[in-house]
Amino acid sequence: MAALSPDLRDSMLQAVPSMRAFAISLTGNIDQADDLVQEAFLRGLSNLSKFEAGTNIQAWLFTILRNQFHTAYRKRKREVEDPDGELASRLTSLPEQEGHLDFEDLKVALAKLPLEQREALLLVAAKGFSYEEAAAICGTKLGTIKSRVNRARAQLAELLGIAAAEDLGTSGVIKAALHIA
Fold first, then answer.
1. CB of 158 within 8 A of CB of 133?
2. CA-to-CA separations, 126 to 2, 71, 73, 118, 178, in angstroms, rounded
3. Are 148 and 134 in contact (CB under 8 A)?
4. Using one digit for the tens of pLDDT, what is the confidence trace for 123-158?
5. Which residues in the chain are classed under CATH 1.10.1740.10?
6. Which of 18, 46, 20 is nearest to 34 (CA)?
7. 11 CB-contact burial (10 Å; exposed 0-12 / middle 13-18 / buried 19+)
């Protein structure tokens, strides 16, 4: 394994919270997400010699995490699915504030999006990656990412019953996801 510089180590460690949040959004399970982040981090460290200095270490780690998720997803195809969120909805507690209600509605709506659209939207809107970085992470073309994000935003607005910016209330979370100022 190549020597790890303090700057590179710090950059990698700074990526952990974002990687964990992204993994949770992909898996819907905190334990699986933590395992996924740990595996991605270990693979990143063991393949550090393949990292190109001067490029975005966080995007590289996100790519490893995403690839790990898809590999695990293919292996789990025989597990029970919850496409309508019925099982997952029984596992949550009712929120105490309106913002939490909006967030819960957003989580349910996000779960209904196709995986490719959801991950593109999360990378761009929630994680702040550029379209170019998101395309690199997902291993696809720039136009494909833009299209996925656009379709995801349109479908989210429809699922949430949002026709105009005034329908959003004060929820910054939903505004960010739908890219409304």
1. no
2. 32, 23, 22, 11, 10
3. no
4. 998 888 999 999 999 999 999 999 999 999 989 888
5. 7-75
6. 20
7. middle
pLDDT digits (tens, 9 = 90+) for 115-128: 999 999 999 988 88
Between CA 118 and CA 130 the distance in angstroms is 15
Which among 72, 69, 78, 62 is positioned nearest to 14, based on CA atoms? 62
CB 36 within 8 A of CB 62: no
For the domain spanning 97-178, the CATH number is 1.10.10.10
Of the CA atoms within 13 Å of residue 160, those in its CB half-sphere come to 32
Answering whether pTM is above 0.90, one says no
**109 closest CA partner among 162, 53, 66:** 162
Nearest CA to 121 out of 51, 40, 176 is that of 176
pLDDT of 156-178, one tens digit each? 888 888 776 555 554 555 555 55
Cα angle value 60/67/145 (rounded, 5°): 75
What residues does CATH 1.10.10.10 cover in the chain? 97-178
Domain 7-75: which topology?
Answer: Rna Polymerase Sigma Factor; Chain: A (1.10.1740)
